[in-house]
Amino acid sequence: MKRHFKIASFFRILSARIAGIDINYAVKLHPRVTLKLTFLNRSTGAISIAEDCEIGTGAVLNSYGGKINIAQFVYIGEYVVIYGHGGVEIGAKTLIAMHTCIVSSNHTVPGQSIPIRSMPDILLPVKIGSDVWIGAGCKILGGVTIGDGCVIGAGSVVTKDLPPYSISVGNPARVIKYREE
Questions:
Q1: Which single residue of 57, 63, 99, 164 could bond 46 by disulfide (Cβ 3.0 to 4.6 Å)?
Q2: What would you measure as the largest C-alpha separation in the chain, in angstroms?
């Protein structure tokens, strides 16, 4: 079974590389992972995944015209959704648990004269440091920087920057303490 998984993962990676995604052959791609580029940014390295990363079943990484950069040794759990319209950067050795959603853009809400569907996007980059642990079901909203070594409790909604080595929980996420040496 393990050999079958390696062969299937290899062919998923090969097809992603052919589509223009910069992905290392040492990445472990589980079944039903969606790596999606928009037509305009197919050849610009819009999605870049370094070596020894693992992406769980059903995860969706969609560049939407922006860039998603994932450093080495990152684990992305099952059914994680990452929208890279405003840009998403994930540091090395980061763990992102299942059902987390990372969104790097938002809509303006100028008034009633423009239909919601026609409102322009605001691009808000997301930067996640190295050695970060994001619990299951978290929501990371655009425009935030999560410092190195942070731990974010399950179900938290991150709306503001989090300082390095902080432990945060809640909606909105707030720092409850810091990791000790």
A1: 63
A2: 58
CA distance 165 to 177: 9
Closest CA to 62 of 88, 43, 90, 25: 88
- Report the relative pairing of strands 34-36 and 126-128 from DSSP bridges: unpaired
In this prediction the pTM is 0.89
The residue annotated as part of the active site, out of 4, 30, 99, 107, is 107
**Is position 19 within any domain?**
yes
181 within domain boundaries: no
On whether residue 69 sits in a domain, the answer given is yes
Number of H helices, E strands in the chain: 1, 22
pLDDT tens, residue by residue, 116-172: 778 888 899 999 999 999 999 999 999 999 999 999 999 999 999 999 999 999 999
By the 8 A CB rule, do 98 and 79 touch?
yes
Q: For position 74, which CATH number holds? A: 2.160.10.10
Strands 126-128, 88-90: pairing is parallel
Q: What is the pLDDT of residue 37?
A: 80
Catalytic residue check, 99? no
Q: How many domains does the chain have?
A: 1
List, for residues 1-47, the tens digit of each pLDDT value. 466 556 667 777 777 776 778 888 888 889 899 888 876 555 556 89
